[in-house]
Design brief:
single chain; about 900 residues; alpha/beta; 3-stranded antiparallel β-sheet; 40 helices; 15 strands
Length: about 900
């Protein structure tokens, strides 16, 4: 539907997003914050290469779950995966409805913006997030006609008339005066106007106005104290609610217990609690949709429904007034547990339809588990819900599930309780996925003796132990656990899990050198998968068979990998897509088809970053290191070091890792984000035809060490490196670099680089918000002046502005923490560390434009922090004059 009366605000938000990373739309309930944000999204989505993505925080009730919910709705398993998945491609993230978890939402958004440079965030909230750099757009009501007028051009009247027309009830001209009074009565609040307009199907505008007047007299209660617009919206919901038939009103009350979107089946279940059969519940639901009290959730692949937060709060208040809120939440838990019991077997069988239903159920299952934790005396329901999450934890919500499982097992620790061992299997799997490999193994092993109380835990526990054992380097133990898991799975009819275990064991056999047995096992698994009609098992077995063929003969194996990749894409199987892209990158490198290998590895990084596949980044970095080594690019060393510093993710990645053929690496690991950014940059440069970085030993061999020279010429620095001479702008960062290059291998304290003599104590908060805003605006102005001066070739003016900007950046950096928040001053050492790091890295970025080889050399050879050091892989003798 058209967004009426907000054109100026849409343009304003779109403009601010162009030069600000965080814009927050604030205003009261029902004022149209979400509609405005979505309209802006449609307006500007094409400006972002990765598009626009909407996160709805009404799906969470607890501040602890906010970060995980943001990650999950953006397609990432964990919040850690999200913030460690860098991309140079811009994206817009809309975080909607922050008001009930403002602090947690602010912290999560702050962490996202601090760790990822590409995204911009558009948030909606009833109050500011109070984050550094936040740009606020205050959204007020729509304009209403002046008293005594019926101005049809006022935005509120236009909205009412438009929505009434949508409801099939065009308003006659002789009713416009009443419509104008109605719009004034509703204070121009868009949601109230829309709900009122929907009522024109059964009432005349004058009747609506009369009901509202009655409602105002009835609803002047303490809970409605506050701004009049809040009262107007509450009045609108209340009178709309009172006009519902009794069965629809009763269903609406019960819908308030839902924590997120809900299905028709769950609607029927809670409807039964108030005496509605399925037909009556379905009819009541559609009436609620028609009344704008329930909306269709368009984010799901299948039809789901949800309440606006204001509607949900109203429904919850109704349940509280009736004294049945706890009863209603307990009954919802019963319904969710009943649905979970039906789904557990399907999840264990890797049934795609069952997994889809489970993801639809997840929000309310998590909310029900929290209710059970607070209210149940025994763990029957809570442990079953944890068991159900085994199917979700592999695909998303990993952080949240790990926390819920830990809380549940702490509340009901008896491993002999029903579903306890299944819950422990979920918890152990979650621990493995978040990196606690040893903890995952020990947790599963501790209950293995009592696992026979469950049909599935003997399989899922051994599966978790096998994954952990391989990650810990014990290949024979991992093979043994997979063999046991397969036997147990077949014994209890879980054939798909048995096939997965067989394929995993085949990879380990190949690692151990027994290719013949590995092929036999993988081919048998593939044949059985086809026979039982399990597409996931079939594609996975096909992918691993192709990987085994690569081990045997690279050229022949490439065709099989390509076919497996096509099959994985046909059924949208992300893990198999990643495995086959990596295998293609490895194989194409082996046969010397470097450009094709670079294309596949670039595609692999795009694929992993789009879905948050952090666990597989180790393999992507290692295979990229192999390609860069073959190309003579010096960055292979640091990428390899980084890859080997990351945890092992599972048998498939371990098997590919064992195929790597690299000389011993001596480079220093980078953080994961920098490593990924470096890998993608070097792949992109190679594909663009830019010469790859020359290895340090090659540069040394190409000419005498004396060819390396760095000279301070006052207004600029002259550098000669790798046979090229360039002139670099003078800056404090270049002075720091010159000092480091003059004494390779020596750690220099950041205070020395800053020129400090005495370390100063803490002095309290360095900058208040007003001072900080002034600094930031001045820095922006100076940057614009520098750009304009350089465009005019007025380098003297540019240098003057740059000197001032350097000083301001130094001060501002010293005043702010890593997340960009104002910090309490930790003394001169802390301020120096931040300032020196910032200016050295800024200087290196500037060097890249004039002398790319020198910039790459500095990136790999200089480390920053409290102590800074220049340590090249191969000695370089620098002349300073």
């Amino acid at each position: 539907m058209e967004l009426i009366g907000r054109q100026r605000e849409v343009a304003e938000v779109a403009t601010r997003l162009r030069d600000r990373r965080l814009v927050t739309v604030i205003g009261p309930a029902g004022i149209g914050k979400t509609s405005l944000a979505l309209s802006v999204t449609r307006e500007v989505a094409a400006d972002y290469e990765l598009g626009a993505h909407v996160v709805d925080l009404t799906r969470v009730d607890s501040a602890r779950d906010v970060a995980g919910a943001i990650a999950a709705q953006l397609g990432f398993g964990t919040f850690d995966a999200l913030i460690n998945s860098p991309s140079e491609q811009p994206a817009l993230v809309v975080v909607d409805n922050c008001e009930h978890v403002t602090a947690a939402a602010g912290d999560a958004i702050d962490a996202l913006l601090a760790s990822c440079e590409a995204p911009r965030v558009l948030a909606t909230s009833r109050s500011p997030l109070d984050l550094p750099g936040e740009s606020l757009v205050v959204l007020g009501p729509l304009g209403v006609p002046l008293p005594g007028t019926s101005d049809t051009n006022s935005d509120s009247v236009r909205l009412f008339l438009d929505r009434a027309l949508d409801a099939g009830m065009p308003i006659a001209d002789d009713q416009l005066d009443v419509v104008a009074r109605l719009c004034r009565q509703l204070d121009g609040v868009p949601l109230a106007l829309e709900v009122a307009a929907a009522r024109t199907r059964t009432m005349q505008p004058a009747e609506i106005l009369d009901h509202l007047r009655v409602g105002l007299d009835v609803l002047i209660r303490p809970r409605f104290r506050g701004h009049s617009r809040h009262r107007g919206l509450s009045d609108t919901v209340d009178w709309s609610y009172r006009l519902l038939p009794a069965d629809a009103a009763a269903l609406f009350d019960r819908l308030g217990v839902f924590a997120g979107p809900f299905s028709v089946d769950l609607t029927a279940a809670v409807g039964a609690d108030v005496g509605l059969d399925r037909v009556a519940a379905d009819r009541a639901l559609h009436l609620l949709v028609d009344s704008s009290l329930v909306v269709v959730d368009r984010m799901a692949a299948t039809t789901r429904f949800r309440l606006f937060e204001s509607m949900r709060m109203f429904a919850l208040h109704r349940l509280t007034e009736q004294g049945v809120l706890d009863q209603a939440r307990g009954r919802l838990a019963d319904h969710v547990v009943a649905a979970a019991a039906q789904e557990v077997a399907g999840v264990r069988r890797w049934d795609m339809a069952a997994l889809g239903r489970l993801f639809t159920l997840y929000d309310n299952a998590a909310a029900s588990l929290r209710w059970c934790l607070a209210n149940d005396s025994d763990g029957g329901r809570g442990l079953l819900l944890c068991a159900l999450f085994w199917g979700v934890v592999h695909q998303g919500h990993t952080d949240e599930i790990a926390g819920l499982c830990e809380d549940t097992l702490a509340r009901w620790p008896d491993p002999a309780a029903p579903f306890a061992v299944d819950a422990i299997a979920t918890a152990a799997t979650a621990r493995f996925l978040i990196g606690d490999v040893r903890g995952a193994f020990e947790m599963a092993k501790a209950v293995l003796d009592v696992a026979e109380t469950s049909a599935t835990a003997p399989v899922t526990l051994r599966r978790a132990m096998a994954y952990a054992a391989r990650a810990l380097g014990d290949v024979p133990a991992a093979m043994s656990w997979f063999a046991e898991a397969a036997d147990r799975a077949r014994g209890c009819g879980l054939i798909t899990l048995a096939l997965e275990a067989d394929v995993n064991r085949a990879q380990l056999l190949a690692e151990a050198g027994d290719l013949t047995t590995a092929f036999e096992l993988a081919r048998a698994a593939h044949g059985e998968s086809c026979a039982i009609g399990s597409p996931l098992n079939e594609v996975w077995a096909q992918s691993i068979l192709a990987q085994l063929e690569l081990r045997q003969e690279v050229g022949a194996g490439l065709d099989g990998v390509s076919l497996a990749l096509e099959a994985a894409r046909r059924i949208n199987y992300p893990a198999a897509v990643a495995v086959n892209l990596r295998a293609l990158g490895w194989g194409l490198t082996r046969v010397g088809r470097y450009q094709a290998a670079a294309e596949k590895l670039t595609e692999l990084f795009d694929h992993l970053l789009a879905r948050g596949g952090v666990a597989e980044l180790r393999g992507a970095l290692l295979t990229t290191a192999e390609l860069l080594h073959a190309l003579g690019n010096e960055f292979w060393d640091r990428l390899a070091a980084t890859a080997f510093s990351l945890p092992l993710a599972g048998p498939t990645n371990c098997a590919m890792d064992s195929m790597a053929q690299l000389p011993p690496h001596r480079g220093l690991p980078m953080n994961r984000r920098d490593a990924v950014a470096t890998a993608r940059r070097e792949l992109r440069l190679y594909l663009a035809g830019t010469p790859t970085a020359v290895p340090a030993q090659t540069a040394a061999a190409a000419g005498p060490a004396a060819a390396a020279r760095l000279v301070d010429r006052g207004q600029f620095w002259e550098v000669t490196f790798a046979g090229r001479t360039a002139h670099l702008r003078a800056s404090k960062g270049m002075t720091d670099i010159g000092l480091l290059l003059s004494d390779p291998g020596r750690e220099i304290h950041c205070l020395q680089l800053m020129g400090a003599v005495v370390e100063e104590p803490s002095t309290g908060e360095v900058l208040d918000q007003r001072a900080r805003s002034t600094y930031e605006q001045r820095i922006r102005d100076l940057q614009e002046d520098i750009d304009a001066a350089e465009a005019d070739h007025d380098y003297s003016r540019a240098d003057r502005s740059r000197l001032e900007m350097d000083a301001l950046v130094d001060h501002l950096t010293a005043a702010l923490g890593l997340s960009g928040r104002a910090r309490r001053s930790g003394g001169s050492a802390e301020r120096a560390r931040s300032a020196v790091t910032q200016r050295i890295r800024s200087a290196i970025r500037g060097v890249d434009d004039a002398h790319a080889e020198f910039a790459r050399h500095l990136e790999t050879a200089i480390t920053t922090g409290t102590y800074c050091m220049y340590r090249p892989e191969n000695p370089v003798h620098w002349k300073r004059s």
